[in-house]
Design goal:
The chain is mostly helical. The chain has 26 helices and no strands. Helix 17 packs parallel to helix 19. The longest helix is centred in the N-terminal third of the chain and has 19 residues. The chain starts with a helix and ends in a 6-residue tail after the last helix.
């Protein structure tokens, strides 16, 4: 209690100090601590007038925060009203960050307007000049003007030989995104021989057969797990019109994606491929049990085809038991091939499908599995939801384990009262064996303290 009181007193003292007079140092401390939004609000509230001698320092920090927060539009608005009296060092900073913001927004013309004074009016050393010239290239790519971007690349290469590998890679990436593989070949030799980008360029330029590219992309994926190799597989699938290869690539992308992934695209790919897969294995429409059995028996080399059949059955099978078993088999199949996050992304998009997997043992196992995947993926809130559903499905030792896991996940998310409620439930509902043992002990205690009856 004393420690808590001390912390509270310190916070009150800090608050009173800020209320008395906030300084640039206060905003800088917030920025250094990672509280960027709070620091920006502090500046907006307390930055002095432009005539103040330290106004430029405040403004420099404001632009740093806008950049860190990704507020590109606000950066451009602020740059447009830069006072004429702005010191040269700050003007250079503002022009540079405004150019970068414009590129992020796809406004190459505005970016070049901001770059022009940096290139011709303000002195810059050779390294700065090189970086600015690369931004000119980026500005044409932002405009989706591949031809002008290519000419800018050639001029850049003429002035800055030899290019670094990173520069060559950026040129190739930008040109491939514009469908200009033949122009990108200029930098083929400077790319990593084992890298996905070189393989992608060779594929798009027709320098390698599609089956060979697929084989190398699979090997690269197995070796590194890089999304870029899965993207090569996706492009090869488009060129070859191979629906199962497309699914394989999307499964890999879902597994490796750091941010949002459109799970609906993968669900659609499965469903669209199902008729072709069924025809390949001579499966009859309406024979749901036959489809399920065939999918379960397919070898590991044909696991994508098996999953395609499972997905079809999850919605089209007439029997609820078959639909539930197909969902369970799909989930287990993905986890068996180490596509844990693919499974999580597929099923988190359709929680209702998870909750109707199978009653009893199978349903609880599947929910616990999904909870573990969510936990490993850093989503404690989703993990708690799955663990609680597993606990509700089983009223035994397994269910207690699930409830304990849910409590731990709730603690991680900051839901203290909900976590305590789970611990309280566990204390009030001991396992049957312990409850029986406790009852027997109580009865023994009563018997020992009760005097024998008089004859």
């Amino acid at each position: 209690m004393q420690i808590f009181s001390g912390i509270l007193l310190a916070l009150l003292l800090v608050a009173s100090t800020h209320a008395a007079g906030e300084t640039l140092a206060d905003a800088q401390k917030l920025a250094d601590a990672g509280a960027h939004e709070l620091a920006l609000r502090r500046i907006e509230r307390t930055q002095p007038h432009v005539d103040d001698p330290r106004w430029a320092e405040w403004e420099a920090l404001r632009f740093d925060l806008l950049d860190r927060l990704g507020h590109a539009e606000e950066t451009l608005k602020r740059a447009a009203i830069m006072p004429a009296t702005t010191p040269e060092a700050l003007r250079r900073k503002v022009h540079l960050q405004a150019a970068q913001a414009a590129i992020r927004l796809g406004d190459g013309k505005r970016a070049r307007e901001e770059l022009l004074p940096l290139l011709w009016r303000f002195a810059a050393d050779a390294g700065e000049q090189r970086a600015l010239r690369m931004l000119v290239v980026e500005s044409y790519l932002a405009d989706k003007n591949g031809e002008e971007a290519y000419l800018a690349m050639l001029r850049y290469q003429q002035d800055y030989q030899p290019l670094t590998r990173a520069e060559a890679e950026r040129f190739v990436e930008g040109l491939l995104a514009r469908g200009m593989a033949n122009e990108a070949i200029n930098w083929l030799a400077q790319l990593d021989e084992e890298g996905a980008l070189k393989l992608r360029l060779r594929l798009q330029a027709g320098l390698i057969a599609v089956p060979v590219a697929v084989e190398q992309a699979r090997a690269g994926w197995q070796r590194s797990g890089e999304m870029a190799f899965a993207e090569v597989m996706l492009q090869a699938a488009t060129l070859a019109n191979d629906v199962l290869l497309r699914i394989e690539a999307l499964e890999h992308l879902a597994n490796a994606a750091q941010g949002e992934f459109n799970a609906g695209e993968l669900w659609r790919a499965y469903r669209e491929a199902a008729p072709d897969v069924a025809n390949r294995y001579h499966l009859l429409n309406g024979d749901d049990a036959g489809w399920l059995e065939a999918a379960a028996k397919l070898p590991m080399e044909e696991v994508v085809a098996a999953r395609t059949l499972f997905v079809y059955l999850t919605t089209q099978a007439l029997s609820e038991a078959v639909r539930a078993e197909a969902r369970r088999q799909l989930l287990l199949s993905l986890v068996a091939t180490h596509h844990d996050f693919t499974a999580l992304r597929l099923f988190e998009q359709s929680t209702a499908q998870v909750l109707v997997l199978l009653d009893g043992q199978d349903k609880a196992d599947a929910l616990m599995l999904l909870g573990g995947l969510a936990q490993r993926g850093g989503d404690a809130a989703a993990a708690a939801e799955y663990f609680l559903a597993a606990a509700d499905a089983r009223n035994d030792a397994f269910g207690r384990k699930a409830r304990l896991a849910a409590a731990a996940s709730l603690l991680q998310t900051g839901y203290l009262e909900d976590a305590l409620a789970q611990y309280d439930w566990l204390l009030k509902n001991p396992p049957p064996a312990k409850a029986a043992k406790a009852g027997k002990a109580a009865r023994s205690g009563r018997a020992a303290t009760t005097p024998p009856a008089q004859p």
